[in-house]
Amino acid sequence: MSILQNKIDFTVLVKVINANPNGDPLNGNRPRTTYSGQGEISDVCIKRKIRNRLQDMGENIFVQSAERSDDGYTSLSERASQNITHYQSDDDYAEQACEKWIDVRTFGQVFAFKTKDKKEGVSVGVRGPVSIHQALSCSPVDINSMQITKSVNGEPSEKRSSDTMGTKHLVEFGLYRIKGSVNVQLAEKTGFSEEDAEKLKETLCTLFVNDASAARPDGSMEVVSVYWWKHNNKIGQYSAAKVHDSLKISLKEGVVIPSSVEDYEIRLEELPALEAEVISGM
Fold first, then answer.
1. Which domain of life is it from (predicted)?
2. Is this prediction's pTM over 0.90?
3. Percent of the chain residues topping a pLDDT of 70
4. pLDDT per residue as tens digits for the range 160-196
């Protein structure tokens, strides 16, 4: 595999219709919002979806969801200890981990586990080259809450118990923007390659494939488009902030509350000598 030689910036536009893109467990699982009312999706949530897509593509993943484990291991320490059994140093441990798992060489990982043969255990940190911002909606979102009921008690009871009642929260419509970058210097350390970058691009285009749930029915979340900037050098021709800001998104004249992507004017400003690859999502 060829090591990445060019800095990359990317932006993903995501459309949400009657779905909960990322519930807040400390707020009744309501969709995350900022104080200004903008919808929010955490970077951890986005990375989880990327890992799931990479796993669907047959890649080895270190941080697997419990319900998607494909190697039988039920904890990170077990997966690490069974795959990395001999190492000479912390650097050797990190190198083996990066070679084994694509998500480690992509996002990095902290390995802090006890081991049977070493009293001090394992304490190794890997900095990954791919950084992702939390996603924010381009306008404040409206959240619709509805009461739902179960038709049966969870536990035996003569009367209808309280656990038959619940609440479901949905974002009526939102256009979310995900920003990210790939650092070449860190890619050289972890072994993140040109091929890995192409796989990352593919996962971003298909982010919500096999991601349906009761909170996110199939088709309720869709990648509208992916903007992929590949610089001609390692440090980048422009700062990531300037690249991301070149994508201008604003409400069309006369629109107060957007209800579709068509209510927005999406314009890409030209940056001399840096062209964006625009890819339609799924």
1. Bacteria
2. yes
3. 94
4. 666 667 889 999 999 999 999 999 999 999 999 999 9
**Cα(214)–Cα(217) distance, integer angstroms:** 6
Contact 113, 122 (CB under 8 A): yes
| Residue-wise pLDDT tens digits, 105-147 | 999 999 998 766 656 678 999 999 999 999 999 999 999 999 8
